[in-house]
Amino acid sequence: MTSDARVNEVIHDFYERHYSSVVATANGSAFERYMHQSMERRYGPDTTFRRVLEVGGNQGEHVPYVRHGYEEYVLTDLYLPQPEPTLLADRRLQVAACDVTAMPYDDASFNRVISTCLLHHVPSPWQAVEEMRRITQPGGVITILVPTDPGFAYRAGKQLTSGRKARQAGVSDEFRFVSAIDHRNHFRSIRTQIVHGLRGARVSVAWRPLRVPSMDLNAFAVFSCVV
Fold it and tell me: What structural domains does the chain harbor?
């Protein structure tokens, strides 16, 4: 087993066992709602993206927050997503397992690509972003949410939410270890790699919750790009 495969296995095993009970953005928490709603704020029912691809979508937590119309929504992750039956009942939803840095989709085949809390996990964020751009049609949209780790607000919030839950569940040491190997990229590096991967395109950044351009004062940033 390769080093990356071993790391992915350890991370996947932890989240399989503890995601719903430990992670602050799981199970309909207030922060989960705020985070996902922030990504969808600019797209309401009067907007339609015919084909949508979500990368690193886990079990489809973001899908219920999508307000715009679509004909097809492809939910992907490194491991095959297993959404709730209520999501699978929607025939527009498809699931697939794929590596975001080498996706099995044609050039310019999607109208919108969504990435939530993914780029701090992958070995090469700029390659992932270039793949997102490759499969997005001209005039299409790429939406990327990135936690501001290791910014002060992010770290403090994590200790007060996920860290506290991990201590209560008796998995604090395991949680810290997984966090250390899982968040392999820091925010400033990811931001630079996003800009590089989307060079020449229009990119805007929405900081949350304080809306000022500061890594230490915000919990996450949403990058929006019109290709």
Answer: 3-199 (3.40.50.150)
Q: Residue type at 136? A: T
Query: Residue 214 and residue 227: Cα distance in Å, rounded?
Result: 25
The separation between the first and the last C-alpha atoms of the chain, rounded to the nearest angstrom, is 37
pTM, to two decimals? 0.89
Pair of tokens at residue 154: 């992010």
User: pLDDT tens digit string along 50-60?
Assistant: 999 999 998 99
Q: How many CB atoms lie within 10 A of CB 53?
A: 28
**Which residue is listed with tokens 């799981």?**
26
Q: Which two tokens stand for residue 150?
A: 């290791």
**Cα–Cα distance, 103 to 64 (Å, whole number):** 24
Residue 17, phi then psi, degrees to nearest 5 = -90, -30
